[in-house]
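Running this now, will post back.
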Amino acid sequence: MTPLDRIRIMQQGRPDFSVGPKLQTTWGFREGAVFAAEGLSATVMMASAAAHWLPGMIGAEAVMVLVVVLLFSHLGNPTAAWRAIVNFRRSWISRGTTMIGGFVGLGALAILFELGFPAPAGAVSLVFALQAVTAAFIIFYPGFAMAASAGIPFWTTGSLPILSALGGLSSGTLAALALAPFGLSLPAELYVVENVALVLLAASAAAVLAQLSAALKAGAGARLSARLMIEREKLWFWTLAIAVGLILPAFCIGLGWLGFAGLFIAALARLVGDIALRYAILKVGTYESLL
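Update: finished.
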């Protein structure tokens, strides 16, 4: 039995009046998958819109609509979901809901313009610029939304917004590489975009290390979350997030494995790893002990 096994950790939602650390259970796999899909969709939409590639725009829009459906399904009363936007000034959840809704609307306009619907002068450029703003917000905001939970110190270390953005950008960049054979025009030569993807993977690994390092130097709750991530969540963290999500894509790109088939494997592995990492971070979120 390790020292970690001797720590009594309570579960949120289970009646228990003992004093000690408590794992949150409100956010789980669905939220982790939604956060990953948001970043992927926002990045692919911008790449496709810049290249005027309609299939990619439609696909990214469909994924973001699915994200909205999943977000609404989490609410106790989905019919009142519109009220989530009323606290934009104070709530990151409200800001995220508003921005995602705006991104979907702008995406629909961009698709209509690409299909040939008449657009006023400058409208296409304006829509693209607004899409870029909302996309940038979307890739960062999951980290800010989690950091707003002040009672869970592992989420307030300051690196989560950066980790979130790197996850979305790396997943989206690898998806763009995988979609290139199907018609998506890359903004640079293939090897240049591959090098950008490798840099993003390396930066993601550094952000994970920074997150764990900061937590291990913080208070008891943050340290416990970091230890749970490293010692207990071996499948989600070490196998899926690190080995599958970071190492495998880097090898596929760096060694040129299987050509474009290797790029497809790298893109799929990166998405799996991004979901796994976000879920692991959510799963080990621990409320600080009151005493």
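The chain has a mean pLDDT of 88. More later if anyone needs it.
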